[in-house]
Amino acid sequence: MKIIPANNSRLLSLPAALFLLLWPSLLRAQDSITLDYCYRQAESTYPLGKQMDMLQNSNTLKVQNLNRNYLPQVNVNGSASLQSEVTKVAIVLPKGLPALKMPTLSKDWYKLTLDLNQVIYDGQATHYQKQVEASNLSADQKSVEIEMYKLKERINQIYFSILLLNQNEILLKSNRERIEVKDKEVLSTIRNGSGLEMNETLLQAEMIRIDQQLTETRLDRSASYQMLAELISHPVSEKTALAVPRIILPEMVFDDKRAENELYNIQESKISLMQHMVTTRWNPKVFAFGQAGYGRPGLNMLDDEFKPWWMFGAKVTWNPWNWNQNKNEKKMLSIQGDLLKNQQETFNKNLKISYQKDISEVMKVQELLSQDDQMIALRIKISRAASSQLDNGVIPASDYIARLNEETQSKLNKEIHKIQLIKAQLSYLFTLGKL
Q1: Contact present, 137 and 393 (Cβ < 8 Å)
Q2: DSSP 232
Q3: pLDDT of 81-134, one tens digit each?
Q4: From CA 117, how far away is CA 7, in angstroms rounded?
């Protein structure tokens, strides 16, 4: 990724927001990659991203089940029982009249029924349940989005560590070449009898130390490339160049675009819906019902034969008093809402602290960069003088090595500050949710 370079050292005065990512993100050849490419690759391949579709599919099934609350509920029931006594009818007639013969019921009863229940009005319980599920989906997907956004920060850490290691390797190699040249010169003076062998030994030891640093740098860079490849789920060769991004920032003002605040708003909306759901428990419910059956006895309890029967009707249920359970649940939900608001306030407070820290870091690194060239020029002048003094036998090789290392460190510091500035700018954008 290459972003429009900033030529003005005071980026805070720029009026327009320019965070432009150049270079194509889809690469035809793997000889160079950009930071933007890494972002896109990670977003499209990171396993966490697959949860979006999973959550959507799960929500679809939940809503389908809730919609079935409006469909008739059908149950088949059967029972068989044996009882100790049955209903008897005893009528005493005046004397002289013949006795009435009343039917005798069996003590074993059988029943098979088909029951049908249809919701006519459920007090809007299903309506609010579906809205709560929609809020759950939005919250879950927003949480995944937040975690995916955090990938960019992880990519930044690895990407810029590789850039720093590359710069370190370049300077170390340059330093080694200069010491190697000086070693040859010292060796020549020793052969002529005017140089000290200790100087040549010190230079040889310094070359070995640089070789060790180069080995550490190569191994660290190799590990970083492997981590980057794993993070973006795409092979990245150690020969692959990483484009150095450069950024132009707008005037720095606190303009929060973080998805976490959207998540808090969704969660607060969900709590409001759940309070409405609690209210629906006070609402009356209206149902229609029907029943068809076969058994002994039927609806006519005095008929001791197996008979079919049917009935249908409607019923209303209403629970106007539940001992303040609904009231207490609303209070608990209200407390949860207050907790969410407190969490959001805490998040925004910490966000503003990070924002101030990012601004301070950008300004600090800009100041350091403005002084680097002057420092480098002085260190070059000093190391050249030390080189001449070593040639004339005025100072030992250890002094020359120290001055050369100081020059190299000043150059490395400038490269570090360049990369630190980009990192600080990206951190500023990340903090505000604009990366």
Answers
A1: no
A2: H
A3: 999 988 887 777 777 777 777 778 889 999 999 999 999 999 899 999 999 999
A4: 75
Contact assessment for residue 44 and residue 25, using Cβ atoms and an 8 Å cutoff? no
Spans of all domains in the chain? 2-73+124-284+325-431
Rounded Cα–Cα distance for residues 23 and 243 (Å)? 9
Tell me which amino acid residue 254 is: F
Q: Higher-confidence residue: 149 or 21?
A: 149
Instruction: Match 């809503």 to its residue by tokens.
Output: 63
Q: What is the pTM of this model?
A: 0.79
Burial 302-334 (b: 16+ CB within 10 A, else e): eebeeeeeeeeeeeeeeeeeeeeebeebbeebe
Question: If you ran DSSP here, which 8-state letter would residue 50 be given?
Answer: G
Instruction: Lay out the sheet containing 108-121: strands in order across.
Output: 73-82, 108-121, 285-296, 307-317
Beta strands in 123-250 (DSSP E): 241-242
What pairing do the DSSP bridges indicate for beta strands 2-3 and 73-82? unpaired
User: pLDDT digits over 119-160, tens only?
Assistant: 999 989 999 999 999 999 999 999 999 999 999 999 999 999
Instruction: Give the mean pLDDT of 401-424.
Output: 91
> Residues 140, 319: contact at Cβ < 8 Å?
no
Judge contact between 85 and 32, C-beta under 8 A: no
Length, in residues, of the chain: 435
The residue whose two tokens read 């998040």 is 347
For residue 341, give the DSSP letter: H
> Residue 147 has which token pair?
């975690």
In sign, the C-alpha dihedral spanning 168, 170, 172, 178 is negative
Alpha carbon distance, N-terminus to C-terminus of the chain: 13
CB burial of residue 358 (10 Å; 0-12, 13-18, 19+)? buried
Q: Is the bond into 235 cis (omega within 30 degrees of 0)?
A: no
As assigned by CATH, the class of the 2-73+124-284+325-431 domain is mainly alpha
φ/ψ of 23, rounded to 5, equals 70, 140
E-state strands within 160-252: 241-242
- Three-state secondary-structure class, residue 327: helix
